[in-house]
Design a protein that fits this description.
By secondary structure, the chain is of the alpha/beta class. The protein has helices at residues 11-34, 39-55, 58-71, 108-121, 144-150, 167-176, 189-196, 200-214, 229-232, 235-244, 270-287, 298-301, 335-340, 345-348, 352-366, 384-394, 401-408, 410-436; strands at residues 78-81, 126-129, 155-160, 179-184, 219-224, 249-254, 291-293, 313-316, 322-323, 330-331, 397-398.
Length: 438
Amino acid sequence: MLMNTTSGLPKFIRLNKYYAVRSMYMSYLRNYSKGIISEKVTKKVMETLLDSVMIGNEEVQNSINKFQSKYNQLPPKFLTIAPTRKCNLNCTGCYASSNSTDNKSIDWVLLNKIIFDAYSNMGMRFFVISGGEPLLYKSENKTILDLAKQWDDCFFLMYTNGTLISEEIASEMASAGNITPAISIEGSRSYTDNRRGIGVYEKILNATDNLTEKGVPFGLSVTATKENINLLLDESFYKFYFNEFGATYMWVFQYMPIGREFTTELMITPEQRIELFKVQKKVLVEDKFFVADFWNSAILSDGCISCGKSKGYFYINWDGNIMPCVFVPHYIDNVQSLYKSGKKLSDALFSPLFTEGRKWQSNYLKGNNKPGNLLMPCFYRDHHKDFAEIAKSTGAKPENKAAGDALISDEYYDAMLKFDEQLEKMSSPVWDEMYNTK
């Protein structure tokens, strides 16, 4: 019960949640006041993100109540879906191993069936679009922007490399009003071009100019690696991108050793991770910039949110494989075979992989009279031994050859366990100090 209700949370966790909500509001207000977010878009954001997603109307609540009554737990809050693997870039260490020649995609009819299923049976109104590059998606002459327009009482967050956001695309986003792009960037021009290709940073600048001119709020998606970590440990990095660049939010993804040419060598060290946590907390509290890190911000989300956890999420890729997380490349169910057998997405949430994952989450959060260390919440990276046991015992299939190779590699396994041991040693004193502070 400790981690399930806001009123029962330790004071420092409730305070951090307050700071996060405040920074989200202040970051949006800052750019609205500058005139780079339009009044029309803001009205639509309030109707969808605020009313439909955060508050939930009667229809949403009815769907949630039916799910809870049937399964004795709340449904996940959102779904991440990668409708295409195709991408116009070839970034180093891409988690999806995307490229320009790969045309694997979910067709338009199936894509809408997935959205309808989550919308009707789980009360979902928030959808995250990943890839590949979402703006390259096209099926039956329909695009991702058509998806946002069709489901106009939902809110969409789209991860994009930003290179395709022309004036026309920005205008379409402004017209829809219920979609925000999170543009991938590595930091400076040199870091971005080094990982993503020469000239990419300049194209991102053109994209952000188009978005601010049309009044569309945008965010940034930054992958933290050993190569750019020093930038992310400098507060001026955040001040530039929020105050001058015009970002409304920032997601930080610590490099995960999966996907194309995966390597544990690009991972930031446990020491750097703790330092990054401290910097992120400072900019969230003092500068009121909304920065969320999917590992360092677990205090805000009550731990790991994968495996279709109550108020959490799950992931569907371009092949229709249903996975616990974007960064957990293993699955049991496929959405196409699921629908052919007359089942729903909710059935996949109760596969052995998902149920064992949620069981692990629950046990970890209960701890010994206090929550587990939320500075190391990830059951794939921070507790890789546990993940490997779950994956093997449940018969989970690897998403691709790289995922399969990683699971059977002794070198990979030993490197991950070494990281976990060092992270526990570094983070436990910080977690204990926060938890015991009155």
